[in-house]
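Protein data sheet
==================
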Amino acid sequence: QVQLVESGGGLVQAGGSLRVSCAASGRAVRRYMVGWFRQAPGKEREFVAGITLTGISTYYADSVKGRFTISRDNARSTVSLQMNSLKPEDTAVYYCAARQALSDYVPIPRLSDDYDYWGQGTQVTVSS
């Protein structure tokens, strides 16, 4: 099993930047694909970005493409999401999630049900 803890959320003005991180413990994070999801009040949880085992591939939701960047440091057991040009509609609780994989070439899942391990979430609020 792997345990995930998010950090780095906060309040930022529109147009600003924020970096959220996901620290993994337990089994080596290099065994897991990792995704970032978010959930705004009254809305369903949605996929934001995902990254394969070594980071060779990434995938982004259309709503964040060009603004957000997902990266990972397996030596430090962390996966980060750099968020630039933030908009009020980016306001949500951000979650990292992990799914074990055997290969770097497995497609990145985009459904929350496809992930087995979740962090507790970190709040990101973007003011207008």
User: Anything to note?
Assistant: The radius of gyration is 14 Å. The first strand starts at residue 2 and ends at 7. The CA atoms of residues 37 and 47 lie 4 Å apart. The chain has no helices and eleven strands.
